[in-house]
Specification:
Ribosomal Protein S5, domain 2, 4-stranded antiparallel sheet, alpha+beta, Alpha-Beta Plaits, 2 domains, GHMP_kinase_N_dom, Homoserine kinase, GHMP_knse_ATP-bd_CS
Amino acid sequence: MSISAQKKISRCWVKIPATTTNFGPGFDTFGAALSLYNVIVLERTPQQAPPWSDSPAMVVETLKGFEKKTGASLPNFKWSLHSQIPQARGLGSSATVRLGFLAGLNALAGFPLSKEEILECAIELEGHPDNVTPAFLGGFILCGPKKVLRTRIDPKLFFVAFVPQVEISTELSRKILPPEIKLKEAVQNLQRASMIAVCFFEKRYKDLSGLFVDYFHEPYRLASIPYWEELKRAALEAGALGFYLSGSGSTLMAIAYEDPTTVVHALKSESSRRSLSGEVLVLKPDNIGLRLSYR
């Protein structure tokens, strides 16, 4: 069926949550949605405006991905992005853009794609599922090769992020990772990652303490973040359950249960003492994921 023959929606709003991934040893496997959002608005127009060649490369790539997935031409529309999520900080900004355009275009085009197909297309474009899937579904996500497990996160769990002004390219940060690691380190990562998964699915959050140690990626990526150890020590001494590099960075993430006040104060004090440029964000889990509304 052609796009023109399907239901016409004139305008849609897509709200997509930020994500945090890896959780230390859960490299390319764990992800969670957070209460920080990008909103993409798409509105049907009589003619194409502006030319897509003038749009950011990621947007153009996503538009082409949608056309390829549906086998139909794009409707004429204009778009705007209202952003809370900083780019290149390990908080899933690129995943929100891809999902927002795919879900919004799907609505304008009369819903030719199922939810599963939208998610599949976004993962193909992003290259890995751990950011895309929690942004789409909400909650804590465990990504397997062909299967995803999800659980809600207790709202008493807080994610306290130190977001520096330094940007880190995901593509470049993946290139510095080693092709192999030692068997002993791989086993230790597997042990801790397994325990983290159990803690989230069984809501045993206090048992998370001591599990956020990684050998897969953090030792190589943290070379560009010299203040890591100081902020980690401050957060853990203030009662944080864990501290890890969110995604490929540069955001450093602490997890606190019930009351994040002491952890927030510790990170603010330590970053101020060291004259670090950045902000501390107190985020709650998002258990809803992508929201779509339209008229």
